[in-house]
Each structure stands twice: as C-alpha cells, then as structure tokens.
Amino acid sequence: MLKKKKYYGRDPIKKLMNDPEKSEKIYKILFLVNIWVWFSMFIGAVIFVIWTYKFLSA
Asked: Does pTM top 0.90 for this prediction?
C-alpha cells in the first residue's frame, strides 16, 4: 500500500480518505456506480438503435 501523508485540515473527503477501510468502501461504491453508468449507457444505445431501426423501416 502507498504511504500517504496525514491530512490535518477540515476537508471531510480527505479525512475519509485517510482511513483505509473507509477509502476502500468509497472505491467500491464508485466502482459499482461506474459499472451502473456504463450499463445504462449501453442499454440506452441498444434501445435507441432498435427504435431507430423500427422507425426508419416503417
């Protein structure tokens, strides 16, 4: 693991990132959100292609 410099300011995000367990939870949540966003974009693109094919072929 990388050695991080301790933060002593008031920024709440940096305070959370100092704790390894909390930072791991944040990374897991962001990873799941990232997968969800890409999945919804893919589904939207598929629906758009199907809709345009039906609309233009009719």
From this structure: no
Candidates 3, 30, 34, 28; CA nearest to 18 is 3
CA–CA dist 18, 4 (Å, integer): 8
CA distance 49 to 40: 14
Give the span between the Cα atoms of 53 and 8, in whole angstroms. 58
CA dihedral 38, 42, 43, 49 (to 10 degrees): 160
pLDDT tens track for 12-53: 777 777 788 888 998 999 999 999 999 999 999 999 999 999
